[in-house]
Amino acid sequence: MTSRSLLRMFSSDLAIDLGTANTLVYATGKGIVVDEPSIVAINKKTGKVESVGKDAKEMLGRTPGYMVAIQPMRDGVIADFDAAEEMLQNFIQKAHQRKRLVHPRIVMGIPSETTDVERRAVLDAAYRAKASEVHLVDQAMVAAIGAGLPVTEATGNMVVDIGGGTTDIAVISLSGIVYSRSVRVAGNLMDEKIIEHLRHGHNLVIGERTAEAIKTEVGSAYPSDRPASMDVKGRDVLKGIPRTVSVREEEIRQALSGCVSLIVQAIRVALERIPPELSADISDRGIVLTGGGSLLKNLDKRIQTETNLPVSLAEDPLTSVVMGTAKMLEDFSLLRKLAILN
Questions:
Q1: How many domains, in total, are found in the chain?
Q2: Model-level pTM?
Q3: Residue 202: which CATH number?
Q4: Which terminus of the chain has a lower count of CB atoms within 10 Å, N or C?
């Protein structure tokens, strides 16, 4: 038995959606085996990683002084290389039931406007996490494939993938990207705007997890028939004691309006820059939204109103990228055509 075939015995190919907010891992023959927050908890006294993913997220805002919970990804790219490597290694081992002798082939989606340096950092982190091969593909392309769009046909398909760190917009035809753009406006920035609004509008300090809950419960991009409200607990800015305030959907929509407008503007620019024939296709087929950020209430209505085009949500927006990336594992001829770096 050759060393290469022996290596394959201990390997299982993986598709990874290395997201700013969450990381999903798909293992060949098993499906999605990891779906966890992209967070690492580090002990500053020892410099060691204490926990990764869900366990680390539980520590957000609750850690003692010597423990810090960090997000290795920022705006879709690696911000902390060592933490990203540890996180990847942990998730790869988790995907393989903690087996040590695994050197998988890995395919990962990455935002279209990342620099060569940023892409190289992702490659290096994956190789140092014991991958045997690493292939990077355009995130919007794999999101379109995962959403079931007919990307190999000679018709225009438009996908808008709104993640935690970036919104990736692409127009695809004949397995090629006709236009793509990545803007660093997405779910995390929305959370920051909610935190800012509560601080300035209600003199209340809240954490990231509370902001995310507000976005999910009462966040919206377009007026609702039945506006919602919710009670929010935080710390009073002036008195420093716990306090509860009620927030309304309308005020959160206003807080998020800048983010939503930037996403809509990026979509408008894409529509202006593509060939007329493809514009005609998109006017028939519409725009497909994927990613966790696309779940913001009435975002599809807002985009539809602004563009006069049909807008629909992918069947499972949260898994479109990883499922599209997984299809690359099954079709290496398509992967070779679409790979950015390997």
A1: 3
A2: 0.87
A3: 3.90.640.10
A4: N
